[in-house]
């Protein structure tokens, strides 16, 4: 009959076996350290270096401004007229609405979305962002009025 709970006997570990295990562990640590050092090394060969250095400078490509003074440069760098300022105003309003909706929900919880939107629209009427957004619309109205008069 077998004895319950007895484990098989283990062999005695000799000093030589312990020394061999230490050497294997030390060698494994050295291999890991060498791999880490190789990863940190920033050495490149000549071909890679030439590939990094011999690249055309594209910073000035596309900048075809030939001006002798500031006025000429500004004339060449000006943006075309904004044909759809309404879209920009709507984008301003949408961004304003997103920021204000969060604030209003914290200040006045429990309102319906339409109540929040009404409050946001009232804030928009007083907002300096509206003045900035309407700047483009007023410029458009001025230019369209000038073209009608001509």
UniProtKB/TrEMBL annotation:
One of its GO terms (molecular function) is transcription coactivator activity. This is Coiled-coil domain-containing protein 124. InterPro entries: Ccdc124/Oxs1, Ccdc124/Oxs1_C. Belongs to the CCDC124 family. The lineage of its organism: Eukaryota, Viridiplantae, Streptophyta, Embryophyta, Tracheophyta. GO terms for cellular component: nucleus. Keywords: Coiled coil. The keyword Coiled coil applies. One of its GO terms (biological process) is transcription by RNA polymerase II. Residues 57-129 form the Coiled-coil domain. It comes from the Eukaryota.
């Amino acid at each position: 009959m077998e004895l319950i709970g007895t484990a098989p006997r283990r062999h005695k570990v000799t000093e030589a076996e312990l020394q061999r295990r230490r050497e294997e562990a030390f060698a494994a640590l050295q291999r890991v350290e060498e791999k880490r050092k190789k990863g940190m090394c920033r050495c490149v060969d000549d071909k890679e270096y030439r590939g990094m250095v011999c690249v055309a400078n594209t910073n000035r490509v596309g900048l075809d401004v030939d001006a002798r003074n500031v006025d000429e440069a500004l004339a060449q760098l000006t943006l075309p007229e904004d044909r759809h300022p309404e879209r920009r105003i709507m984008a301003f309003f949408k961004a304003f609405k997103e920021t204000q909706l969060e604030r209003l929900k914290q200040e006045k919880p429990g309102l319906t979305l339409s109540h929040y939107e009404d409050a946001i629209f009232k804030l928009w009427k007083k907002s300096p962002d509206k003045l900035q957004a309407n700047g483009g619309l007023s410029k458009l109205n001025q230019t369209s009025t000038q073209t009608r008069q001509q």
